[in-house]
Amino acid sequence: MFPVRPYAKVPAITGWEDAATTDPDQITEWWATRGWNIGIPAGRAGLLVIDLDRGGPDPAGGQWAGAVDGTEVLANLAAAAGEPLPATYAVLSPSGGRHFYFHQPDGVRLRNTQAALGPLIDTRGHGGFVLAAGSQLPGGTYRELPRPVAALPGWLAAALTDRSEADTPATTRRTVDEPAQSGWRLQAYLRAVVEGERRNVAAAPVGQRHRTLLRAARRLGQWVGGGAITAHEARAVLTDAAGHFLGVEGYTARQVDRDISDGLAYGARRPRHRIPHRIAADE
């Protein structure tokens, strides 16, 4: 586990996936200072978490036209596969969604996906995290539905194989060979980019919020496409920055999520892998 900012989904430490620990002394030290939310690095914990969102009828129609939430979509997928809806440890989110926890299959490193199984279903694996039961957002508390964590069913593992972020060309991590592009220079530049977009979104005035959030998501999406940051990390930062949009001039959580998804997808199709030459040279 690792600390996440209170009432938010943003990690409170850098390098959270590597820094996460089960060491009770470190955990006590972290939580002695503040009432952090609880982050679980899914893949490092050996988990694949299926995130089932609440929503409405799929606007695209088709086979999902009548589905109203991710749980219904997953039940339909299970029925089509001739399997029961998986029974495993679950967590209810404040928005009414559900997180189903499964053990990762042996010999497979499943990463994150977005709508790969169907609408209103994301997954968190290697490179992603979830908030544990007991964590709080402005809308409420994450609550557990206690059961033993089950193994990921074979039909779901097969459906997710080759669909994770690690296997998607737009999000494949790349190694940058040039010395000026590696190490602290690149990391410092990326931190500045992410923080800059966070500030832009947080400061966006009414009437400019949709455009500002979409532009920020597109810019971060380029670095997601280049493999420098994960889609989950970019989404967490932007969602937190746009939190005060909700309820103002009809802006909803679903609209925030749609703007971020659209922007990240657009940017990922135009990946960036390098610091601009002038900046790299100046540093």
Describe this protein's structure.
By secondary structure, the chain is α+β, with helices and mostly antiparallel strands. The chain has two domains: 2-167, Prim-pol fold; 170-282. It has nine helices and twelve strands. The strands form three sheets. Strands 3, 4, 5, 6, 7, 11 and 12 form a seven-stranded mixed beta sheet that branches. The chain has a three-stranded antiparallel beta sheet with strand order 1-2-8. Helix 7 (231-241) runs antiparallel to helix 8 (253-268). The two termini are 35 Å apart.
CATH class of the largest domain: Alpha Beta
Rounded Rg? 19 Å
| Beta fraction | 5-15%
Structural class: alpha+beta
Q: Which segments are poorly predicted (pLDDT under 50) over 5 or more consecutive residues?
A: 165-184, 277-283
Q: In CATH terms, what is the architecture of the largest domain?
A: 2-Layer Sandwich
SSE sequence, one letter per element: EHHEEHEEEEEEEEEHHHHHH
Overall 3D shape: globular
Mean pLDDT: 82
Number of domains: 2
CATH topology-level name of the largest domain: Prim-pol fold
